[in-house]
Write a structure and sequence with these properties.
This protein is of the alpha+beta class. The protein is built from 11 helices and 18 strands.
Length: about 425
């Protein structure tokens, strides 16, 4: 029988009493001791995405957050400095905490969110710049949940669907590279889910695994909400094995998948899991947050996958000339339109043919009177302006100074600059959407 861990209580929790567990430390408390009504307690049990964190965990978060910000993984820097054109970069983040990337020019080829909280009425273009093709599975009604995979538009990708995959928050995309395909799945399993939910996710992953050829790779990512699972490392490898028995984890190991995520959250726990079919080809490390603020329970991860083939084919983009109507000769345009022969337009009995005749005449006029130019190709989002660019440069310079000195003063100046950039970025984005 469990004991209420509230200091002023410490009494037994009987079978008929309502209790609430802490999502992080898993200590159990009387619902009445916390002052929570039965409605709140039921909402947690109904797997609505609502989570309870005890006071000690929240206090520890505040202390650990400042420490975590001062720490940058050496492994991440080594990976970034040694990237090859065969490396595929996958960023994994838990919650989409804002409808906007913190860095609009993210270097990741693939970005994965295991819990988006997005609704179908939110457009993907409100969240990601046009350089990404976005695949989503949203909850139609209840709050929370939702999974998302965004892929660099220059890569060939497609979503994998099956009539056998139903009623779970599961998404799979296929990347087609020269001579190899990489399948990436994303799962979200709500807290306290029953066995059938885990079984359905396992069946979906097994179905995808059956599609692989000998050269293909499978990456299984997700917030599976197995907080009681503990992991032990395997010597001379980057593989971690579960120290506790769980049917879902055992099922993934049975299809030759290996868990490689070793990055703990601020409480020293491992919540987001990464299973891969080729562990020797994958490096995983802590990286900077994609959205701000970052969820401290789910640190942002970056996977570097050596594909053995070129991710991008080396080619020069040829920009297409577009008309510049600001410099057009409108007097000549009016004159040519007035003198054009429109008789064939009235003789046509087919609407499509009539439209083609109309546009052919206009295009001939425009080709004569409107100059063309090569547009500047920008990787920045459409709401980016000079002030945002200036603040971004300031932020980058201060971060380099902090990395070189490691001083708290330099870090404070960097945080201030990052805050200025984030606030203005949010305001410009809001003005753009209006």
């Amino acid at each position: 029988m469990a004991v209420c861990n509230l200091k002023k209580c410490k009494s037994l929790i009987s079978a008929g009493q309502q209790s609430i567990p802490c999502h992080s430390c898993e200590n159990i408390f009387h619902a009445k001791c916390l002052g929570y009504s039965g409605l709140v307690r039921d909402a947690i049990d109904m797997r609505s995405g609502l989570r309870y964190y005890c006071d000690e965990c929240i206090a520890y978060e505040t202390q650990a957050l400042s420490i975590r910000r001062l720490t940058k993984s050496t492994v991440t820097e080594l990976i970034r400095n040694s990237r090859k054109n065969t490396d595929l970069l996958v960023a994994l983040e838990s919650q989409l905490t804002s409808r906007m990337l913190s860095e609009p020019d993210s270097l990741s080829h693939v970005i994965v969110f295991t819990e988006t909280w997005l609704k179908p009425e939110v457009l993907s273009s409100e969240v990601f710049p046009s350089k990404y093709t976005t695949y989503r599975l949203d909850r139609p009604s209840r709050r929370g949940g939702g999974v998302l995979i965004a892929v660099d538009s220059e890569l060939t990708s497609e979503v994998i669907t099956s009539d056998e995959i139903n009623d779970i928050e599961f998404l799979c995309i296929k990347l087609s590279l020269p001579g190899i395909s990489i399948y990436i799945t994303c799962s979200y399993i709500p807290p306290s889910s029953e066995f059938p939910t885990y079984a359905n996710h396992l069946s979906a992953i097994q179905l995808i695994s059956s599609k692989l050829s000998d050269r293909d790779q499978l990456i299984v990512l997700g917030d599976f909400n197995i907080p009681r699972a503990t992991w032990s490392t395997v010597e001379t490898s980057n593989i971690l094995l579960p120290s506790t028995q769980h049917d879902f984890l055992d099922g993934l190991l049975d299809i030759s998948l290996s868990q490689v995520n070793h990055v703990l959250n601020f409480l020293g726990r491992l919540l987001d899991l990464c299973f891969v079919s080729s562990p020797d080809c994958v490096c995983i490390a802590r990286t900077s947050a994609i959205t701000l603020p970052e969820d401290p329970y789910h640190p942002t991860l970056e996977l570097t996958i050596d594909t053995g083939t070129k991710v991008y084919e080396v080619s020069e983009k040829i920009a297409k000339r577009i008309p510049c109507f600001r410099k057009a000769n409108f007097a000549l345009i009016n004159s040519l339109i007035a003198c054009s022969d429109w008789s064939n337009l009235y003789l046509s009995t087919n609407i499509n043919e009539a439209v083609n005749i109309f546009y052919n005449i206009l295009n001939e006029v425009f080709n004569t009177c409107v100059p063309t130019y090569y547009p500047k190709i920008s990787n920045q989002p459409p709401w980016f302006n000079k002030e945002l660019a200036r603040l971004k440069n300031v932020k980058s310079r201060l971060y380099k100074k902090f990395r070189a000195s490691g001083s708290q003063a330099a870090f404070s100046r960097y945080l201030s600059a990052r805050s200025d950039f984030t606030v203005l970025n949010a305001q410009c984005y809001k003005n753009y959407c209006i």
